[in-house]
C-alpha cells in the first residue's frame, strides 16, 4: 500500500468552540472524543483541493462532538482516480473517523467511463457539496456584437482557445461553445487556465474562461483597461438542483440564459443533459465530502449538523471568502441531490459526449 503524506491540523485554528461542539453532540448523540478523523483527498499538498481540505479540517475539529484530532491525508495518483479507488476499497467501519473529498477531476473520469475507475459514487454518502464558478470573456470587438446574450452573430467568427485538454474541466467550455454553434479551435497542451489567460492577453486566443477567483484577480484588471469583456458565467446550482445565476456575478447571464437566447442551442435533450452533468461535476458541485457507504444515519446526521454549525458561524463569510467565495455549501438533501446530478448521466448523454470527443478531437476514452 502506498504511504500517505499527511499534515496534522493544529495551532490557533484548532481552538475548540465548545458551544458549537456541544450543540452537535446533543443533537446527534454521537461523539468522536479521543479519536482521529482521517480526511483523505486524492491529490497532492498543492492545489485547490488541498486548500479546500485544510480550510474545512480545523473547522470540523471544532464542530464535531468530542473535538477529534483531524488529519488531512494526501493520496495523489492517476488524476485522482487512484485515491478514489482506494476509498472504494477501504471504507472502514463507518464510525465517522474516515471521510473523503473529491473534485471535478474525480467525477469526470467516472462520468466518461474511464477504465481506470473502480469506484462507485452510489456507494458513498455525501455530507457536503461545495461549488465554484467561472466567467467566459471575449475581445471587446467581438463582445460588442453580442446583444441580449444572443451568440448567433458570432457563429462565423473563428475563435482560438487555450485548453488543458478536452477531457479535463475544459470539457465544459468546449461543449458549451459547440452547443452555441461557435467555431472554436482549441490549442491543447496549456498547463493551466493561467496559461490560457496569458494567451488571451498576448492576442493568441480570442475567447477564454477563468474560474471565479482567477477572474477576479487577473481578468477584472483587463476588463477595467478595456481589453476584455465578460459575456456569461457557467452559473450556480440552487438547493432544488436548478441552474441559476452565479452569486458572485449576479449581473452576468448564466450559460443557460445565453443558450436560451441563441438560435440552435437547446436547454433540453441529450446535449443539454450531458452539459448539465459535467457542469455540475466541474463547477456547481466541484468538490464533495463523503462518508463511507456503511456509515449509519446517526453518523451522517452528526456530520450534517457539524457542517451546518460551521456555516452558521458569525465569521464564516469572512473566513471562507478567499477559499470558497460566496458559493453554496450544500448539506443534507441539497448535497445528496447535487451529487446525484453530478455523478448520474444517461447512457445516451454519455455516448453523445464520447462520440463528440472522438469526432472533433480524435479522443477515445473507453
UniProtKB/TrEMBL annotation:
Keyword tRNA processing: no
Keywords for the protein's UniProt record, in alphabetical order: Signal
N-terminal signal peptide: 1-26
Keyword Repeat attributed: no
Gene3D superfamilies in the record: Bordetella uptake gene, domain 1, Periplasmic binding protein-like II
Top-level taxon of the source organism: Bacteria
Family: Belongs to the UPF0065 (bug) family.
Protein name (record): Tricarboxylate transport protein TctC
Organism: Lutibaculum baratangense AMV1
Amino acid at each position: 500500500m502506498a504511504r500517505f503524506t499527511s499534515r496534522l491540523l493544529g495551532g490557533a485554528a484548532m481552538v475548540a468552540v465548545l458551544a458549537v461542539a456541544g450543540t452537535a453532540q446533543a443533537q446527534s448523540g454521537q461523539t468522536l472524543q479521543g479519536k482521529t478523523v482521517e480526511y483523505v483527498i486524492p491529490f497532492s499538498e498543492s492545489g485547490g483541493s488541498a486548500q479546500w481540505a485544510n480550510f474545512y479540517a480545523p473547522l470540523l475539529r471544532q464542530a464535531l462532538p468530542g473535538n477529534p484530532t483531524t488529519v488531512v491525508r494526501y493520496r495523489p495518483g492517476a488524476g485522482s482516480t487512484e485515491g478514489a479507488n482506494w476509498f472504494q476499497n477501504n471504507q472502514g467501519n463507518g464510525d465517522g473517523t474516515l471521510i473523503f473529498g473529491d473534485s471535478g477531476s474525480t467525477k469526470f473520469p467516472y462520468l466518461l467511463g474511464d477504465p481506470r475507475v473502480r469506484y462507485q459514487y452510489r456507494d458513498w454518502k455525501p455530507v457536503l457539496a461545495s461549488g465554484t464558478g467561472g466567467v467566459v470573456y471575449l475581445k471587446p470587438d467581438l463582445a460588442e456584437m453580442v446583444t441580449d446574450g444572443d451568440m448567433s452573430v458570432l457563429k462565423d467568427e473563428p475563435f482560438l482557445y487555450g485548453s488543458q485538454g478536452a477531457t479535463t474541466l475544459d470539457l465544459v467550455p468546449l461543449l458549451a461553445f459547440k452547443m452555441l454553434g461557435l467555431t472554436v479551435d482549441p490549442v491543447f497542451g496549456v498547463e493551466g487556465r493561467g496559461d490560457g489567460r496569458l494567451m488571451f492577453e498576448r492576442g493568441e486566443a480570442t475567447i477564454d474562461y477563468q474560474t471565479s477567483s482567477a477572474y477576479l484577480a487577473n481578468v477584472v484588471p483587463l476588463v477595467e483597461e478595456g481589453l476584455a469583456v465578460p459575456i456569461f458565467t457557467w452559473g450556480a446550482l440552487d438547493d432544488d438542483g436548478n441552474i441559476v445565476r452565479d452569486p458572485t456575478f449576479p449581473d452576468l447571464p448564466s450559460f443557460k440564459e445565453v443558450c436560451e437566447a441563441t438560435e440552435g442551442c437547446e436547454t433540453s435533450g441529450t446535449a443539454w443533459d450531458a452539459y448539465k452533468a459535467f457542469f455540475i461535476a466541474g463547477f456547481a458541485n466541484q468538490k464533495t465530502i463523503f462518508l463511507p457507504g456503511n456509515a449509519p444515519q446517526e453518523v451522517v446526521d452528526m456530520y450534517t449538523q457539524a457542517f451546518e454549525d460551521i456555516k452558521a458561524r458569525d465569521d464564516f463569510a469572512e473566513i471562507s471568502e478567499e477559499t470558497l467565495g460566496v458559493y453554496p455549501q450544500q448539506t443534507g438533501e441539497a448535497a445528496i441531490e447535487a451529487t446525484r446530478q453530478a455523478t448520474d448521466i444517461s447512457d445516451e448523454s454519455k455516448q453523445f459526449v464520447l462520440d463528440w470527443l472522438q469526432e472533433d478531437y480524435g479522443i477515445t476514452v473507453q
